[in-house]
Amino acid sequence: MVIDINTLLAAYHFGNKISKSSFGRTLLLRYNDIKSKLSPEAWSLYQDAIKTCSFQHYYSFGIAYKKIEATCSKKEGYFQKSFTELQDCSEVHLLIEEGDQLGRELENSLLQMFARLPSKNISGTFNSFDLYRAWMNVFYQLQSTKLISYLHQHKANIENKQGNVQEFMQSKEVYPFSKNNRILIRKLAVKGTDKDIMYSLEFFDGLRNSVLQVIFETHFNRLIKLNKNEIVDYKEKERNKVRAFSTKVFGTEVFRYQGIFILPFENNTLQEIGLIKRRVGRNLEMGDKSILTIEGLLYPKTDYNLFVPN
To answer: pLDDT of 163-180, one tens digit each?
Structure first.
């Protein structure tokens, strides 16, 4: 049971439903089976490449493959040998094909939400009542943010693609509210409404990408789940209505989770969801213990009327 519900937590619950569906289990098994078909070096290289595909959700399997292929055109030896293994592994190509298909279906259905109710007739993904109901919860939460009303209200400004807004959308980083993006907004905003539109587009883009990434990370068990009793130190502060956090945890267990989202729990109750922007691990002098520092942004506990101006 969660304290509050919001769009990202609804996406997390949907990701859990996918992981229990027949096609979700098949895709996860295919991914896990690949490890036994590759050398440790090739598997590690593929895993590391997937980690670099931030916010690419189910597309990350194919994008990682292409990144390794591009690297191999410039390097030989270890890279070339590992890529040949990936190239010859039929399971890798099936994973990429099925991942791309699921990614497209979810992306198209999410975009559909901005115009109408999501369709139930998508090839296989929403063929169960449980899955469709969980996806509808994402839709209702997204509606409650009033994002869709906001986009309609500023439709003319967005569609006209005035130069500075267009430049911002083309130049910004995929990580929402990064230092680079904040500097870009200050640099490109000519008037107050420009700044409002750019920040809202930043939130819109970040929310859309985050919904898909949270689903993917939940499905593939990549989210860091952090219990309060594991936390050594915790700090939180608000910057322009965005909450930034920093936390320290002991142990190496959290290092194995490769996602970019974190779920803080207290007494087995999910508190909220956060985006990891930086993580630093270091060994302590007192034996073989290690400590991990995680910094990031927390999504609003409740995002009702999030896009309604104060």
So the answer is: 888 889 889 998 888 889
